[in-house]
Write a structure and sequence with these properties.
The complex is a heterodimer of chains A (79) and B (274). In chain A, strands 1-4 form a two-stranded antiparallel sheet. Chain A has a two-stranded antiparallel sheet with strand order 2-3. Chain A has 79 residues and is of the alpha+beta class. Chain A has helices spanning 15-18, 20-24, 64-68, and strands at residues 3-7, 30-34, 49-53, 74-78. With 274 residues, chain B is an alpha+beta fold. Helices cover 31% and strands 19% of the residues of chain B. Chain B contains nine helices and eleven strands. Chain B has helices spanning 3-8, 52-60, 62-79, 87-96, 106-112, 129-134, 148-161, 186-194, 249-253, and strands at 80-85, 100-103, 122-125, 143-146, 164-170, 173-180, 199-200, 204-208, 228-231, 236-239, 259-263. In chain B, the strands form three sheets. In chain B, strands 4-2-3-6-5-1-7 form a seven-stranded mixed sheet. In chain B, a hairpin with a 4-residue loop joins strand 9 and strand 10 (236-239). The chains are: A alpha+beta (79), B alpha+beta (274).
């Protein structure tokens, strides 16, 4: 089974401040990750962070992240 | 005897009580085993996210997954030496290692987005920590130096919150005392979900005296490894020693001393299960 979690980068602009989806994920499948090598990240600058589905083998498809996202930026698909 | 004690222990004592494991002179000595090349992650940052191919293989390709898992197992058994310890052992280590620092936890930042101020939950040990202090941007938040007393106090607090203590070494150098919980810990996660021996079981195993347990419920829910649950038939706690990692979280809260930590070598069936 393939799980895909796609985060629309144009809608998800404040991942570092918000990250409601990351907090809510019951299996920790979503990660708050830097978009550039960690050594060059400026912590206070949120544009360097993004949400990404990484441990997708653990994703159950409970859709909590989709429900909580204030910008409706996350889509989860199974096939 | 665990393989780490054989390799790094001295005079029959546990390997992490050997002061040589924290010494300045072994810091940065490359380990004799060949280092497996890691796939470069263009996004930078985290190795805790796991390799995408491994996660993908676990979903789609069981045969490839088993092959990859065995490969990584070999690497981690040689390179990445992590073992669960009890709170008492952690306190002893704090007395041996110097300097002691608290650093931010990468796993909790990544999977729960924890702010740096609340995230000083990992202990860094030894001279490597001066480097962390010097480059707070590279190492996210830098390092906070503490005295052994402060460290013990913090460890007890973490233990009460329900974090499992574990000692980590890279090569011969013991550099980290983690406070972890499942699933928000890269190590525990790879060990329990993927079957990669990232974290070894501890030298102790929890033994439950059935007649002393009065079903008070303090320990239920503290086990991060799925070894302890309530048995509705007997109306008591139920311990699966095969799954027990020997962290001691359950015995620390047991009001009637029904759960005791016994040496793993004294329990025949699990004596060599690490």
């Amino acid at each position: 089974m393939q799980v895909k979690v796609s985060v629309d980068a144009s809608k998800c602009q404040e991942a570092y401040q918000c990250h409601l989806c990351v907090k809510a994920c019951p299996r920790g499948s979503l990660s708050l990750v830097p978009t550039i090598p960690a050594r060059r990240v400026v912590e206070t600058n949120s544009k360097f962070y993004t949400v990404e589905g990484r441990h997708l083998a653990d994703c159950t498809g409970c859709m909590e992240c989709v429900r909580l996202c204030p910008e409706k930026a996350i889509a989860v698909s199974f096939n | 005897m665990c393989d780490l004690c054989e390799r790094f222990g001295e005079s029959g004592d546990k390997w992490y009580f050997n002061p040589a494991r924290y010494a300045r002179r072994i810091y940065r000595i490359e380990s004799p085993e060949p280092v497996r090349e890691r796939p470069a992650d263009p996004r930078g940052g985290s190795s805790m996210g796991g390799s995408p191919e491994l996660i993908d293989a676990r979903m789609n390709d069981p045969e490839k997954f088993i092959k990859m898992r065995d490969e990584q197992n070999e690497h981690y058994m040689a390179e990445h030496l992590d073992q669960i310890i009890t709170l008492e052992e952690a306190k002893k280590i704090v007395d041996i290692a110097y300097p002691l620092t608290f650093v931010t936890c990468q796993c909790r930042r990544e999977w729960r987005g924890l702010e740096d101020e609340e995230n000083f939950g990992c202990m860094g040990l030894g001279p490597g920590m001066y480097k962390w202090e010097r480059w707070p941007i590279g190492y996210r938040g830098g390092a906070v130096f503490v005295t052994p007393e402060e460290a013990k106090e913090a460890l007890v607090k973490m233990n009460q919150k329900g974090y499992v203590q574990r000692i980590s070494a890279r090569g011969p150098y013991a550099c980290e005392l983690c406070n972890c919980s499942y699933p928000i810990c890269g190590g525990l996660r790879f060990t329990l979900d993927y079957g990669i021996k990232f974290v070894r079981k501890g030298h102790y195993v929890a033994n439950l005296a059935f007649d002393k347990c009065d079903d008070c419920g303090r320990c239920y829910g503290r086990c991060q490894f799925g070894a302890l649950k309530r048995d509705p038939v007997a109306q008591r706690a139920d311990m699966n020693m095969f799954k027990c990692f020997g962290c001691g979280l359950c015995s620390d809260v047991c009001s009637r001393k029904a759960i005791s930590m016994v040496e793993r070598s004294d329990v025949p069936a699990v004596a060599n299960v690490w």
